[in-house]
Amino acid sequence: MLKIYGIKNCNSMKKAFDLLAELDLSYEFHDYKKQGIDTDTVKTWLDALGQGVILNKKGTTWRKLTEQEQQLALSSEIALINALTTHTSLIKRPVINQDGHYVVGFDEDKIRALK
């Protein structure tokens, strides 16, 4: 089963939803703005993909953190997991998981390959 994580009102998410509909791929959506995200899931993503893939440093949420908060978030895996679960907008969108195969961010070719 394909599971997509993100925030409903995000442009990247809207493009991903449209593409999944075009490909007629069924999925379960987890809105981590409304539902939150658990530490185990975030740790799994970090272990599988790395901080550089999961942490969105280009977004407004990262830029709004103080330099001290940014340094703290990057100081250890536990601190990063805490930052990502507290400020879910720090997670790149979408995160798509299909049986342990991940696509992070809107990448049309990789999403089409899920079919």
Brief rundown of the structure:
The protein is an alpha+beta fold.
Can you tell me about this structure?
By secondary structure, the protein is of the alpha+beta class. The chain is 47% helix and 16% strand. It has seven helices and four strands. It has helices spanning 11-22, 39-49, 51-54, 60-64, 67-73, 77-86, 108-112; strands spanning 2-6, 27-31, 95-98, 101-104. It has a four-stranded mixed sheet with strand order 2-1-3-4, with no helix packed on it. β1 (2-6), α1 (11-22) and β2 (27-31) form a beta-alpha-beta unit. The model has no long low-confidence stretch (mean pLDDT 96).
Helix content, binned percent: 40-55%
Percent of residues in β-strands = 15-25%
How many β-strand stretches? 4
Intertermini distance: 11 Å
The average pLDDT score comes to: 96
The geometry reads as globular
**Over all CA atoms, what is the radius of gyration?**
14 Å
Order of helices and strands: EHEHHHHHEEH
- The quaternary state of the protein chains shown equals single chain
The helix count comes to 7
Poorly predicted parts = none
Question: Keywords, please?
Answer:
alpha+beta; 47% helix
Topology:
Blueprint: E1 2-6, H1 11-22, E2 27-31, H2 39-49, H3 51-54, H4 60-64, H5 67-73, H6 77-86, E3 95-98, E4 101-104, H7 108-112
Parallel strand pairs: 1-2
Antiparallel strand pairs: 1-3, 3-4
